[in-house]
Amino acid sequence: MQGPIPIAGPLTLGDLLDRAFRIYRARFGLFILTGAIFLVPLGILSGVLSGSFMTNYLTFLAQFMQNPETPPDETMLKLFQSNSSTIYLTYLLVPLSLIINVVVNLALVQQCIAVLHQQDVSLGSSLRVALSRFWAYLGMTIVKYVSMIFAMGVALLPIVCIFFAAAFAAVAGLNLPTGNFGRSEFFQTFGIIGLVCCGYLVTILLIIAPLVYLGGRWVVATPGLVEQHWGPIEALRNSWALTKGQVRRCVLYTALMYVLYFVIYGMLNGLAYAALAATWATLPNAGAIVFSAVNAILPVLWQPLASAAFVMLYYDLRVRQEGYDLNLRVQQLEAELQPASPNQE
């Protein structure tokens, strides 16, 4: 393992990402192995199913374009029959994918915490920790998403009432039954269209705003749930306390991680299609192969980095809110000053 990765004082966003990459490099082999064992088979299966469905869909679409007299209902029935097994497997894949991703995420978080504290950790021990925290994480996730849905409903209710009241008033003001559609009616109609567009934009903002805010407040719930064995509600409550006064910073940090994700995703897609164009241009189902390869490789590369990034954010918030680095120094001084026991002499 590489040199120590200190937690000394508050860090900038750049420092956090730097420490995350250092964690990533420190146990790169273990991280990749953890993801590869579970996520590669899942990604390949998901890519094959998606590629198979899209291939069959494009085939039937081409046949329909060549024979437009074929009834659309008949074409859709044939498409469903040809993809019935794929659809059923997809239904089974969704819950399996959720379980696997949760276990891998918790195991990677445990490994990142161990690396940060310069502790030895194995794949087996991290998986045992992940399984022991699985139900707590599941409960936390349910509470989190139910709360987000409720918050969106509360945010949307006033604007929906205002929108419908304004729309009703605008429609009632039109004098369309008389057949006199003059300048005033034109502006009223234009106003209704503008009202609909503004209402649509405001609705989108009101949907996004609670998700962004609550996501920022609960961004470090998972590392605390793993490290300190918090319960579901306790993890959300403590994450809320840790992010007090730091919400904007947490949201910006999360946004940076999303940007980094799409950069890596774009690079992998570009490399895959370049290799395809250079060597496998005549290979059948080439698009499905590329999609499967990217789906298999990207989570293995990304998940450890994301886990390390949010583990670092968790400790940085503890430093800012709890003086975590000072507590560590006090503990070290106490250990150094403590007299040796007779057995050690």
Describe the structure in brief.
This protein is mainly α. The protein is built from 12 helices and no strands. 23% of the residues are buried.
Structural features, described:
It is a single chain. This protein is mainly alpha-helical. It has a domain of 226 residues. The protein is built from 12 helices and no strands. α3 crosses α4.
Structural class: mainly alpha
Which H/E pattern describes the elements?
A: HHHHHHHHHHHH
Radius of gyration: 27 Å
State the helix count.
Answer: 12
Uncertain runs: 174-179
Q: Approximately what portion of the residues adopt beta-strand conformation? A: under 5%
The geometry reads as globular
For the record, give the distance between the C-alpha atoms at the N and C termini, rounded to a whole number.
32 Å
Number of strands: 0
Mean pLDDT: 77
Helix content: over 70%
Which key terms come to mind for this protein?
345 residues, globular, 12 helices, single chain, mainly alpha
